[in-house]
Write a structure and sequence with these properties.
Elements (H helix, E strand, L loop, with lengths): L1 H31 L12 E6 L6 E2 L5 E13 L9 H8 L3 H13 L1 H4 L4 E7 L1 H9 L7 E10 L6 H4 L2 E3 L2 H6 L8 E3 L2 H5 L1 H4 L4 E7 L5 E4 L15 E2 L4 H10 L5 E7 L4 E8 L4 H4 L2 H10 L8 H4 L9 H10 L14 E4 L2 E4 L9 H7 L2 H12 L7 H14 L21 H8 L23 H12 L3 E3 L19 E3 L4 H16 L17 E7 L7 E8 L6 E7 L9 H14 L7 H9 L11
Parallel strand pairs: 2-10
Antiparallel strand pairs: 1-8, 2-3, 3-4, 3-5, 6-7, 8-9, 11-12, 11-19, 13-14, 15-16, 17-18, 18-19
Length: 613
């Protein structure tokens, strides 16, 4: 009996303690802690979202390249809507009655999910429509209007670079649960890359409803309201005026134009052409279908998403490796009789003096010279077989930034294509391929593909004589510092002395005598160093390529122009890149080069590009 009473007392005591804990908890929740009452799911409260101003995007000189303007969104709380004059409503907002009917069908279908929420009914109405709507608002219970900020673009340039902002969809919400329906987010370009900085923090005002779901008053005199916090401004590395000029040069051409400051890795200009007109960005939903349907794919950022054969520009890579491996010196000469021939294999070349030394091979862009040089690298007796030599060659190439993602802050950056021993084993049979089997790599053809960003970074590496900084678009400021990875030097496996030898050949390609392939890039008073490329294209005219940097000593700018179906490197890429260099370093085009600028501006190569219509 005593044991029974003892157990009973323990049970009673336990129940009493549990009851006391529950009472204390309820008292704390209901009397002391009001957080449960201001939960967004509380139907007695109405939350009115306050959207923050999105951060500005500025160029390197402080000019605004993406700003804000006030627009208005029409909001609706479906449970509060009463019968209204649909025709008058649609007339004010310039919408069709079918749009209204479809909206309310959805609200009814998902009424449990919608509940007491206030939803975006119509986005970005004009100031005129807003004023008319506010005057008649009393006729449309359940509707309201809130100010929103839309993007503006003071410079008519940088559509692909800047990207666009649009309302989030279901897929975006799955990946980013902190966002809600009706929110906007950066979807491409810098708007996407720096969304966390630019977006700011939403605020809200809380209202109390009465028993009839009517707004009664501010909840607790606004004690629990939250102020919206403006997004951070982002300063870019872009020179807005240079960007606009670059886009003008690339008008009616397909390809890329990229400029980097070698001493920092800052991207000065990034043009993908044809691109999106900035006037379409602010109202991207209105223009989206037309943009997507454009056969030239203006949303496709060729700078980082279009791996292409580098062509003769890649001779500089093999030249650096040949010097480093001591299979060639600047005095080494090879013959060229309009090409390189072994048995049934011939790699053609243009007519020029023969034989040539190393400097002349760059100056005149001799294919035969680099066939000899490449075979010397692959057949180097210090390696036991070509597989071993090829793997070492690949290490050198990757150290120069090729065949890998550079790690830039540009969305959708691609790594390009680098051949592997496994690939050649599949193509030719294991142990059956030789240096002649892959001879096309000697002149930047074959199984290698790199993006224009890779080539621009290589030009910066040459300018720095052996190292590069990861290319990036965000400027380092006190308020928005960049990551340390953008400040680190990436050294290649090539000695600085060997870079200096290649640079000398590049100087001669622009400033040398007869046979120099890039003489039209020469500028008065500025030592430009460059290398042309003509990348073979099995689908049409060859691609025109040119990389350069200037000045020769203490370089300020490194450029690549990649003009698809543009023919020889000197035809289009050389003048476009050199005009950009001149504009940046001299701020104007010399009168004696005005003809070149005019020719580029009037040039239309779109009909040369084979597209699917």
């Amino acid at each position: 009996m005593a044991v029974f009473l003892e157990k009973k007392n323990i049970l009673i005591t336990g129940i009493a303690v549990a009851f006391l804990v529950i009472v204390i908890r309820l008292f704390n929740v209901q009397i002391i802690d009001k957080s449960y009452r201001i939960n967004a799911d509380n139907n007695a409260l109405k939350y009115e979202t306050r959207y923050p101003a999105r951060g500005l995007i500025l160029d390197r000189n402080g000019d605004i390249i993406v700003g804000n303007k006030i627009t208005y969104d029409i909001m609706v709380t479906p449970v509060e809507v009463e019968a209204f004059d649909t025709l008058q409503f649609c007339k004010i907002l310039s919408i069709d009655t079918s749009f209204v009917k479809e909206k309310f069908r959805d609200y009814k279908l998902y009424r449990r999910k919608v509940g007491f929420q206030t939803l975006t009914f119509l986005k970005q109405v004009s100031n005129e429509q807003y004023n008319m709507f506010i005057e008649q608002l009393y006729k449309f219970p359940g509707f309201s209007a809130i100010p929103r900020l839309a993007r503006t673009y003071p410079f008519n340039a940088g559509g692909n670079l800047l990207g666009y902002v649009s309302e989030v969809d279901a897929n975006y919400l799955k990946r980013n649960p902190s966002y809600k329906m009706g929110d906007y987010a950066g979807k491409t370009g810098m708007e996407e890359a720096y969304e966390e900085l630019l977006k700011g923090e939403k605020g809200y005002t809380i209202y109390l409803r009465d028993a009839h779901n009517r707004i009664k008053e501010h909840y607790e005199q606004g004690q629990y309201d939250k102020t919206a916090v403006k997004g951070a401004d982002v300063v870019t590395t872009i020179d807005a005026h240079l960007q606009a000029y670059g886009e003008t040069l690339m008008k009616n051409k397909v390809g890329s134009l990229v400029a980097i400051e070698p001493s920092t890795g800052e991207i000065l200009t990034m043009v993908s052409s044809p691109g999106i007109n900035v006037n379409q960005l602010a109202e991207i939903n209105k223009h989206y279908k037309d943009i997507v349907a454009d056969p030239y794919k203006p949303m496709f950022n060729r700078v980082v998403m279009s791996p292409q054969p580098p062509g003769s520009v890649f001779k500089l890579v093999n030249g650096l490796i040949g010097l480093q491996e001591n299979v060639v010196t600047v005095d080494t000469k090879y013959p060229c009789h309009r090409g390189y021939t072994v048995g049934n294999l011939t790699v053609g070349c243009h007519n020029h003096p023969s034989p040539l030394n190393f400097y002349q091979s760059i100056m005149m862009s001799c294919n035969a010279y680099y066939c000899y040089l490449f075979r010397s690298i692959m057949d180097n007796p210090k390696y036991s077989n070509i597989r071993e030599a090829f793997l070492k060659w690949s290490e050198y190439v990757k150290s120069l930034g090729f065949g890998t993602k550079l790690g830039s802050d540009i969305p959708s950056e691609q790594a390009g294509q680098m051949p592997t021993v496994e690939k050649y084993d599949r193509l030719h049979g294991k142990g059956r391929w030789r240096s002649l089997s892959i001879i096309s790599l000697s002149i930047g053809q074959g199984e290698i593909g790199c993006t224009p960003l890779h080539l621009a970074n290589f030009a910066a590496t040459l300018a720095n004589r052996g190292y590069y900084y990861t290319p990036h678009l965000q400027k380092d400021t006190q308020d928005t510092p960049i990551e340390d990875k953008y400040k680190a030097r990436h050294y290649t496996m090539i000695d600085t002395a060997n870079f200096s030898k290649v640079v000398e050949g590049m100087y001669l390609a622009v400033n040398g005598g007869p046979g120099a392939t890039a003489r039209s890039a020469a500028l008065e008073g500025i030592e430009v160093c460059g290398k042309t490329g003509t990348a073979q294209n099995p689908h049409g005219d060859d691609h025109s390529v040119f990389i350069c940097f200037a000045p020769k000593d203490n370089p300020k700018i490194a450029v690549v122009a990649y003009i698809e179906n543009g023919g020889f490197g000197a035809t289009w890429a050389v003048p476009i890149a050199s005009l950009l260099v001149e504009k940046y370093l001299k701020d104007s085009i010399a009168p004696e080069r005005a003809w070149m600028e005019q020719r580029v501006l009037e040039g239309n190569l779109l009909n040369k590009v084979k597209i699917k219509r």
